[in-house]
Design a protein that fits this description.
Elements (H helix, E strand, L loop, with lengths): L61 H7 L9 H28 L8 E5 L5 H10 L6 H10 L9 E5 L5 H8 L8 E5 L6 H10 L6 H8 L11 H5 L18 E5 L4 H16 L3 H6 L4 H14 L3 H16 L31 H6 L1 H4 L4 H7 L17 H8 L3 H6 L3 E4 L10 E4 L2 H11 L2
Antiparallel strand pairs: 1-2, 3-4, 5-6
Length: 447
């Protein structure tokens, strides 16, 4: 066997296998000669082929792969959370806008009427802050914005305005656009126990009324003035001998009145105060079977005879015993108060002889008091209460007339006397059950 030693030392191709013999056939058409043998290529030989390349590694080691590429987990739905938050903010914002709209439109709950004073030269910002401070609006900034952009800010006026929480912004702006000149006021004080004539004189002296007659004509309803809006006014009896219907009902207090107020407005203010002060007593009055007028009349005497809360209820007990006792000595049930009687001593401030009422009626100058007046007001002449009150009592005296000291009543006290201002017991009260005890007290009191 010869060895082919050609360059490349390629091994000889194995001999082609012999084709099996076939039966004789018709000769086939001539074909192309057999292709030439290709030169042997080592690179094509599987025995000399380079080993396959390892796949490219993306990680240094297997541990690194596990750390960097963990198994796929379920992600938190951040997108859903963001959508929900945005929806919540939108809903809250819508609710806030609705509340602001309700305030602008005045659809909120209404409050009490409040007088708001706008100073001259106040800006819309000042007014907005003032309205917020007084509870008229909840958001001053919103009112300021609305006033400016609605074109109504420049028309706002100064003065006193009556507004209330719950008004629409338009209504507030209309109210503030009406010129209000601040009205001057005068303070008036009516002391407890002041007579109706003296009350009228106080208003005359304050420059609020032109005369005592003008005031009393209104207060008594003689000039056509109607105060029937007050229950107590309708309950005042038009009894025979009554001098002044208003006596006892012009409630003593300190008031602030407009200097240009009408007489009716002045009187109405006093009556409104009386109505307010006594409203809580009406049920008790009805339960005790008495009337408001009787309580007021008795209170006017308590006010004159005592006038200090710590003594009012004891003096009231003495008066109640005189009027209600079964004691034979008091069978006539006379009140016997020096404040309205035949006694003419100046120290007594007697309603019939030396009070403003007596001076107004001209009784002392006439030298005698008409018989019909004495028969209606002299507490040493008549049984029971007089025809009307003798002054305007305060609340303590009214309450004492309705609720006397029960202990003093039960023990049977009928008399009292106060110490002489110039004696050893000025202003001190002495109480007694019998006339003899009372006379002794009078001596002790320095009379």
């Amino acid at each position: 066997m010869k060895i082919n030693r050609n360059a490349g030392a390629q091994p000889p191709e194995p001999p082609a296998p012999k084709a099996p013999q076939q039966p004789a056939r018709t000769p086939a058409p001539a074909q192309d000669p057999a292709p030439r043998r290709k030169a042997y290529d080592v690179a094509q030989d599987p025995a000399f082929a380079a080993p396959p390349a390892e796949p490219e590694k993306f990680f240094e080691a297997e541990d690194d792969y596990e750390k960097e590429a963990p198994a796929r987990r379920r992600r938190f739905p951040w997108a859903l959370l963001i959508v929900l938050v945005m929806l919540g903010l939108a809903a809250f914002g819508g609710w806030q806008l609705l509340q602001l709209y309700r305030e602008v439109d005045g659809a909120g709950e209404s409050g009490e009427l409040t007088t708001v004073t706008v100073e001259q030269g106040s800006s819309v910002a000042n007014i907005a802050d003032l309205l917020q401070e007084n509870g008229i609006v909840e958001h001053g900034w919103l009112f300021r914005f609305y006033a400016q952009y609605s074109g109504q800010a420049e028309g706002l006026q100064y003065g006193d305005f009556e507004l209330y929480r719950g008004m629409s912004y338009n209504d507030i702006l209309v109210a503030l656009s009406e010129q209000k000149v601040r009205r001057q006021t005068t303070r008036v004080t009516i002391p407890e126990g002041t007579t109706a004539v003296a009350v009228a004189q106080i208003f005359v002296d304050a420059g609020l009324v032109d005369s005592v007659e003008t005031f009393l004509a209104c207060a008594n309803g003689e000039d056509g003035s109607d105060f029937s809006q007050y229950e107590f006014w309708n309950l005042i009896p038009d009894n025979e001998g009554r001098l002044l219907k208003c006596e006892g009902y012009l409630f003593p207090e300190t008031y602030e009145f407009y200097t240009d107020a009408t007489v009716y407005e002045l009187v109405d203010t006093l009556y409104a105060q009386f109505d307010q002060e006594t409203a809580e007593l009406m049920d008790t009055i009805a339960a005790k079977g008495t009337t408001l007028d009787e309580v007021v009349i008795l209170a006017s005497f308590i006010q004159e005879e005592a006038g200090v809360p710590e003594e009012d209820y004891k003096v009231s007990a003495c008066f109640h015993n005189r009027l209600e006792s079964d004691d034979p000595l008091w069978s006539s049930h006379m009140l016997e108060s020096n404040a309205s009687s035949y006694i003419t001593q100046d120290v007594e401030n007697n309603y019939l002889w030396n009070s403003p009422m007596a001076e107004y009626m001209g009784w002392p100058q006439a030298g005698a008091i008409p018989e019909d007046v004495l028969n209606a007001y002299d507490t040493y002449r008549i049984s029971g209460l007089p025809a009307g009150a003798i002054s305007n009592p305060g609340f303590a005296a009214i309450d004492a007339a309705l609720n006397p000291d029960e202990g003093f009543m039960a023990e049977g006290y009928y008399f009292f006397v106060t110490g002489n201002p110039n004696g050893e017991h000025p202003g001190e009260y002495f109480y007694a059950k019998t006339a003899d005890e009372h006379n002794a007290n009078v001596a002790t009191a320095g009379w």
